[in-house]
Amino acid sequence: MSRASERAYQHVRAMILRGELVPGEQIREEQLADACGVSRTPVREALQRLETESLIRRNDSQRSFVAEWSRADVEESFQLRAMLEGHSARRAATRISDVQLTELKSANAKLEAAVKMVRPDIPTFLEQNRSFHSVIIEAAASFRLANMLTHIVEQPVIFRTAHQYDQENLLRSHHEHMELIAAFERRDGDWAEAIMTAHIRRAFHAFADAHQRDISALPDDIAA
Amino acid sequence: MSRASERAYQHVRAMILRGELVPGEQIREEQLADACGVSRTPVREALQRLETESLIRRNDSQRSFVAEWSRADVEESFQLRAMLEGHSARRAATRISDVQLTELKSANAKLEAAVKMVRPDIPTFLEQNRSFHSVIIEAAASFRLANMLTHIVEQPVIFRTAHQYDQENLLRSHHEHMELIAAFERRDGDWAEAIMTAHIRRAFHAFADAHQRDISALPDDIAA
DNA sequence: ACATTGTGTATTGTATACAAATAGCCAACG
DNA sequence: CGTTGGCTATTTGTATACAATACACAATGT
User: Fold this and answer.
1) What is the C-alpha end-to-end distance of chain B, expressed in Å?
2) Å from A24 (CA) to C3 (C1')?
């Protein structure tokens, strides 16, 4: 993607992920164009992309709204992720290169360091976690699979809730990643898939717990 | 999608599926705009959509080409379909309504009629088959899952090769559909998923065989 | 009071002109 | 003979003007 439309995409996406654009709120192309400093044309391309990623929705008459994520949506999306990333891990096990294994270890080491600080460094955790999973998807060498996953993983709710995770949960991710690496080194697809599936399911429950704490801390009228 | 961009999408898509636009061939926006009788703007929207459906590809400098499907691509895509539609069938089993069950039976009856003609009516078979699978995906009630599947199923090679299927293979589809209906009536998710997975795997081999016959019938230089 | 139709306004859709980038070509040079 | 550099033609990217559509709300009639 070229400059203006890429810029619009990143900008709008960031606004949604950070919650600046509230779920359910209508989006007007011209307003975004102003906010991004580009014309409506690249904004429209960005919106089309964001729609395929389910970050925005369009009603019958093509008006755009920031997507709302119900608990069912989140659960559905974790379920799909578990299936797709499990499959991805299975494929990766028999295809992963030594270089990629090294990258996996490196990302997980950085992730560990970020988690074990007195106050966990969540942005770094998220970044290294993303990087870890990306290497696996790359190693799976399935173009379509990779495509689908990029359309699922990023969700505003999850992104924001991550800051509520406690250290124990973050450490579990680290350990599960170690297990995955072990499975890859043994080239054991069954094992890798099983761990990955469990990893994502566990992450789902961690999210659900943290999210619960999160909304409980808010006044009732907002939490509803 | 509004009129012009929808028109462009359908038109270009049809040209690709029918093989009028040859895989590997470069696509120029203006040429398509002329062909569709619209301006470049809606054509660009259509191309973006077709790209997410993997019917076209873009190189590093954003030039568009009709996607080429290697055997590995086809296999990969059947593998994903087996996984996703299997999952879909499992979910559908516990959610499907009586109305939807009736629709399933109706589509499969029409499919049977099309297959049992002296000379099988392939277009009708394809249409009713599509309809059958759509009802299941709808019954699965997973928005994202449905989205992903629409981005996978249609492939030019498969579309064209379908005309090579022999009657026995088409009949097997009909029988497997009956089994699926039985599994749904028992609300048996395990069973439904297993049949669906097998159904898609079998379809893959049927395709591979027919495709083999297909390309064998061509002069060597084209078949290569 | 309620539904319905009409009208103005806000928003999206499309065409077009122009800007930017890229590829292909050809010449100059090692 | 191959390689590099720059020019031109081609193609894509962006802005903008205008067209079509949908919405809000008032006016009208029942």
Assistant:
1) 39
2) 30
